Amino acid sequence: MAEDAGNAKRDNATVPATSLVDGLERFGKLSGFLTAAALSLSVFYDWSFLQALGLEFAEVPTTLADHLRSALVWLPGWVAVLSLLALLELVNRLVEGFRSETEIIQGSRNPVFTRRLRRSGDVAVLVAMALGVFTLFLFGTSRSVYYSAFMLAWGVLSLAAITHPRAPLTRWSALGFVMVPFVVAYIGMLGSTRAEGMLNANPEWLVTLKVGDSTEIVRATGVRRFGSVAVVVEPARKLRIPAIVIGDSGLNVTGDSGPS
């Protein structure tokens, strides 16, 4: 009896330790996955930014540190959006009593009407996106319209897929299936929008470019540093590519109150 009691105590003592190790392993895997995801999204953000300026990665040498630093630009806003969506989802689930979609529909007085009503929200979002994309196609020249068009098309196709009766998806797997391409396109749109904002802004920077012994002062609408180089946006040059790349050692930037 005493030996059995001692074995039971040892077994109970190993359970918390094993749980702690498993928890640390899961945390490490999750941290690695989130870091890799943030890095991948940052690379796409920077690629979209340079594309809007007519540049390529081959012309702008970057490092992993540059891309991780870019995450500080888009990540806070996106975290705020996801937090708001998570809060709204939690409130919605609390109001619905954490019942499944089938339970809510079958428990209503008019299941057919309830099913159509609950699907109307998704349709309304897609209609609003379609109107926005159509307006951009008619009156806009922004590259962001292509990202918006992709998000609209993906929204229609993914919604049709996850609502199909034979779709073998749980609630969370369906959410991931819909959101991952949507998030990637949205991050790309943020990068493109930021570059286009620089192109359309008023000159706010006095930039001294040093090439050898000669110097040139230009009024730029934006400056973006990438490690050893910097991208200077100066649409006034009327070039096909309204941005120039220069070594960081040959660049001196000061603020300016605005165009003269």
Helix and strand arrangement:
Layout: H1 2-52, H2 64-95, H3 101-106, H4 111-139, H5 144-162, H6 171-200, E1 205-211, E2 214-220, E3 222-226, E4 229-233, E5 243-247, E6 251-255
Antiparallel strand pairs: 1-2, 1-6, 3-4, 4-5
Helix pairs in contact: 1-2, 1-6, 4-5, 5-6
Which descriptors apply to this entry?
single chain; 260 residues; alpha+beta; 2 domains; three-stranded antiparallel beta sheet; 6 helices; 6 strands; 64% helix; 13% strand; globular; disordered C terminus
Q: Figure out the total of helices.
A: 6
The helix/strand order is HHHHHHEEEEEE
Mean of pLDDT: 77
State the low-pLDDT regions, or none.
Answer: 255-260
Beta-strand content bin = 5-15%
For the record, the count of structural domains works out to 2
Strand tally is 6
For the largest sheet, list the strands in their spatial order.
2-1-6
Rg over alpha carbons:
26 Å
